[in-house]
Amino acid sequence: MTKANWAIDPTHSEIGFKVKHMMFTNVSGKFNAFEASIENDEDHFESSKISFSADVNSVDTNNLDRDNHLRSADFFDIENYSKLTFKATSIKKIDEGEYQITGDLSIKDFTKSIVLETEYSGLMKDPWGNTKIGLSISGKINRKEFGLTWNSALETGGVLVGEEIKLLAEIQFIKQ
């Protein structure tokens, strides 16, 4: 069995999220600066050691005022917490190419175990001879469980920012 190390290909990867705004539409965002690695036996994705981090200062919702608010102490508090991290604790095969990755997500000084639904592409070669794997990842968290509690009541009832955050990632890794 061959051990392999993989690094994220940032030019072919996107780490994003969606949250309800005003109770009826979704606002999308992403992180522009992130790192991830996988160490595994090439033939067994379940044996992977996966780690990920994102620079929360790189949050981008296509609105500078909103991004600055997300960077403030009301949300990510970048002055005190510069990164969010994820480290896989187990990987379970559900079906061919379908996995559940369980791991510890840390935002600010809160760490919770979460489950991510993952589609694994297997090994493939790109046109330049690089061996790659692709992952399509989704999950959900409650932002309040990670200390992201700011909100504002709406005059018509409800709140400005939903509690549930949908996590979405499309990632390519390159064999090192």
Describe the structure.
A hairpin with a 2-residue loop joins strand 4 (34-41) and strand 5 (44-55). The model has no long low-confidence stretch (mean pLDDT 93). With 176 residues, the protein is mainly β. It has one helix spanning 64-71, and strands at residues 3-8, 14-21, 25-31, 34-41, 44-55, 59-60, 83-95, 98-107, 110-125, 131-142, 161-175. The chain has one domain: Lipocalin, CATH 2.40.128.110.
How many strands appear in the DSSP assignment? 11
Unreliably modeled segments: none
- Main beta sheet, described? 8 strands, antiparallel, barrel
* CA-CA gap between termini: 16 Å
Q: Determine the strand fraction and express it as a percent band.
A: over 45%
The Rg value, from CA coordinates, equals: 17 Å
Coarse structural class: mainly beta
Sheet with the most strands: spatial strand order: 1-4-5-7-8-9-10-11
What does the overall shape look like? Answer: elongated
Question: CATH superfamily membership, which one?
Answer: Lipid/polyisoprenoid-binding, YceI-like
What is the helix fraction of residues, given as a range? under 10%
Please count the helical segments: 1
